[in-house]
Amino acid sequence: MPAGGSLKNDPRKQRKEVAPSHPNLPERAMILAAGFGTRMRPITETLPKPLIQVGGRALIDYSLDRLDEEGLRTVIINVHHLGQLIESHVKRRKSPEIVFSREPEILETGGGIANALPLLGDKPFLVINADVMWLNGPHSALHRMAETWDESRMDGLLLLHSTVEAYGYTGMGDFNVDPAGVLNPRPERELSPFLFTGIQILHPRLFEDAPEGRFPLNVLYNRAMEKRRLYGVIHDGEWFHVGTPEGLADAEAYMQERYPGVKRR
Questions:
Q1: Is residue 12 in a domain?
Q2: Count of structural domains, the chain
């Protein structure tokens, strides 16, 4: 069982219960915030990556704001590296309800989610990496994911973005997508047209017979792709990977240009 702590009874956290803004949108989400942020050193030696600011606001707050706006009731945050700083920061928020999944030892993406499953429940849930930011296009990205989600066919639905149009990303992409939206892995030494944004809907059954302890989520992606149960939807807005100093500079420059002089909460 994971070590967890809830702010449910904190008077600052009391809120009127509302349903998610889309009927197919999960009620619970998880933000992956336990990593060391090694590519952002020396900043992350004293400040966890989720608390790095872009446009005067911590990265993790951008995701929490989105989830709160969409009416999600509970967000689980896994913590390890400098976790107390993250906990102290998000405790200032009035909503959504925050539950911590504390990891005495780092569990990576797959292990971190598997460890938090008792907190996430038995229904599909959202997962968001703490080092990403996204701006909606003509429609809400989370709504588009909710409209696409079909648990009869899917164990996972990943939000994808054009590899060559992403801010702060220099990789080769992650997936190919067939006309039905089914994902296939990027062929070795080839550029894939789409990268994974770090935003996804997962069904708990994806974790059936998962490895124990520490493991990457790719292990389960590969298994789901073999069964044609991993799907993707293409993001039609902007996306930023703030995992390196260069990515941070790109995101900061964009926000300063698009929102000059705008005060954010």
A1: yes
A2: 1
**Count of beta carbons in the 10 Å neighbourhood of residue 147:** 15
| 263 is a domain residue | no
Query: Mapping DSSP to helix (H, G, I), strand (E, B) and coil, where does residue 203 land?
Result: coil
Domain range spanning residue 14?
3-258
Count of residues making up the chain? 265
pLDDT tens-digit map of 9-48: 333 333 444 566 788 899 999 999 998 878 778 878 888 9
> Which CA distances in Å does 172 have to 128, 185, 247?
21, 12, 16
Stated pTM of the model: 0.86
Instruction: Give the integer Cα–Cα distance in Å for 153 and 231.
Output: 9
CATH number at residue 42: 3.90.550.10
User: Does a cis peptide bond (omega within 30 degrees of 0) precede residue 124?
Assistant: no
